[in-house]
Amino acid sequence: MPEPIIDFQHVTFKYNAQAEPTLHDVSFQIYPGEKVLIAGASGSGKTTLLRLLNGLIPQAYQGDVTGQLLLNGKNILDQSLFELSLQAGTVLQDADAQFVGMTVAEDIAFALENDTQPVNSIKQKVAKWAQRFGLGERLNLAPQDLSGGQKQRTAMAGVLIDDGKLLLFDEPLASLDPAAGHAAMKMIAELQAERDLTVVIIEHRIEEVLGADIDRVIVMSDGKIVANGTPDEIVQAGVLLDNGLDEPLYVQLLRQAGVAITNLPHVSDLNQIDVTPYRDQIAAIGQSVIPAKLADPQLIIQNVSFGYSAGQQLFNALSTTIHTGEILGIVGKNGSGKTTLSHLLTGFLQPSSGDVLLHGESVLRQSIKERADHIGYVLQNPNHMITKSTVYDEVASGLILRQVDTDTIEKRVRDMLKLVDLDGMRHWPISALSFGQKKRLTIAAVLVLQPEILILDEPTAGQDATHTVQLLTFLQKINTQQQTTIIIITHDMHLLANFVQRVLVIVDGQLLADTTPAELLADEELVTAASLRTTSVYRLAKRLAIKQPEKLNAAIRK
Amino acid sequence: MNNSLFGYKARDTWMNQTTGTAKLVGFLALTTVGMVSYDTRFLVALVILSFILIKISHIQYREYALLLKLVIFIGVLNLIMITVLAPQYGAELYGSKHVLFGSGYWTITQEQLFYELNLLLKYVFSFPLSIVLLFTTNPSEFASGLNKIGVPYKVSYAVALTLRYIPDVQSDYHTISLAQQARGYEISKKASLTKRMKGAVQIILPLVFSSLDRIDTISQAMELRRFGRYNKRTWYQDQKFSGRDFGMIIGTLIIVAIGILLVFQNGGRLWNPFN
After folding, report:
1. % pLDDT > 70, chain A
2. Which helix (H) or strand (E) holds A354?
3. Which of A346, B42, B239, B256 could cross-link B19 (Cys pair, CB 3.0–4.6 Å)?
4. How many CB pairs below 8 A link A and B?
């Protein structure tokens, strides 16, 4: 057995700012050449583990560590952040925020500049790595001109240029759409094979990461390691669901079809799993796709045209109808107009021609504030919306500004807080809330104005399975109880497959399709255009030559 | 979409290809000598030179029109204030008094106007020079130039990073502002000034928090790639001095030398046509 590259023995860690330890007695080894996924719900301690590995603890976050932490046989705590960074390269979660350079070339060169390497040799290495990552033509582009995938490839090149043998990824899929996420995973697998790297990936999106040919999965929960084994063992043991993680969609399907997962060989690999004997069993659970019954038209978008600059039309006479009480998804690759469309509905932007009708009346003359009474909009980043210091005040502020009387405010705010499960925390400072709680808070602050239509931009970004389920349950509740129409802009495949009733595919300002999620996710052409992927359910159905795979997509809806 | 406040653009001109260091040295030397000198002939020459430079840098008028108007406004305001506060300063300076009109405190002399003309020339030559510097120098080259002339690299890099984040902060500001309007803060022209001010405050808080988040992430990303490891660093954008750069520096030196010569010839900073 070779020496482990990472060796943690009985590691316990407590942040100075917290009363309880975040990691409890964590022990594991990672060996050279392994690809390891560390999975866990938010708050499970997986990010803390990463910070211990790359030296951000204790450099940027102070706390008490006990136990033994070795990297390449040497104590991590005795080494500086700089020494560690030469052994373990870290790619952070947000590809945009970690982009340090003004251009791709400078970002890739950054570490070598700091090592005071001569410019000529830096330029050679940058050229080589940019070529490897397909960025050779983009060396002089600024971050604003790059896609999420390109930014992440730049970040990877900037770390690999050190020729380190260990790569750490903090939620590499978080800011990528499914197509780019798939490409990134393939890239990681290729590099690992090519350069004999050791790769550690921190993620909660299991299904996508398993595509990168992972050797081992470590599942964390509440600061402890609850499972450590091959992907097959982990899926067979069924530990994912219990620990706030989503099982791959095809595994959900197999369970539903009554296939015993526990002994199924290669269960974690969609291309190798042998389920031919269960073909009929699986095909039988298919459900016919019934488009949701549409109620009365509520919001009509009529021949809307819009462009950010003269001569460059994004939307050209776009028309569609949104019906009372439906749950509508809007998908499409980044920059193709999804967010622009929602901004046209909320009044953030004005169309150059065409009309937007609510209950038959044009809303174009209404101010942003007036429209917000009918159409609520929740931004992707809750930090962009929060202005008050306590939970209660944040939700109340919209009502106060609308001169609602104090008693009514009290009642409506409390009711709303109960609905989003934050009433017990109503006096808490907002800074003490987790990201998921802040997200629910911003939804509450919008919903308290009782809009008929709620638009959510990427509501599940950065949320693990448990919180996603909570959020969806809650959205379902207001949808059925108050007939609130819900419009979701997303590229979350699970959300699309499980929750949305009707979906609009918008690509380059064109309404490419108006369909059901089940049909969309079984249409390879459409899926590629929207920078999504087909579901694993669809791919399994294809392998088994099951006709009408969209029926199986429909079957896994909760 | 180019949101950058400082309109650096890749332009295929001689000025663009000159290194940031040479331009920075040239800019600092010329502005210093121009600020010191009150020799009108010299200042007029500098004005002509700086307009030639802006021309050969292919910078269009509309790119700096707004900034120019702002500078003219401040310059004129400044001249008016000088006239109001110290109307006899010119006469004192030149040691003679050629009255044009007015009397008492408000006597306007040729000397005063001539002095203010010199001030005006100083604004007029230094503005195009700074535009040329900012518009033809890539931010990171600018940072590397600052570092070369002795500014610590951490400070230089902070300057470059600020330029890097201006578009992001602008777009954050815009998003937050819209979100707050949807919540009910009226900051459009419909509301009163106090209401709009209150609304604006509501944008600052989330903007500060989201910017702090950014700073946190970026500083971690930088440390993880060893920023601050040594007390110097190399610069990818660093460019070797070529004939062009030496040419620019020598040209600058000649102009500075002329400026100094004139000081000796005039027996001081002033060129006095009234004697």
Report:
1. 99
2. strand A353-358
3. B239
4. 159
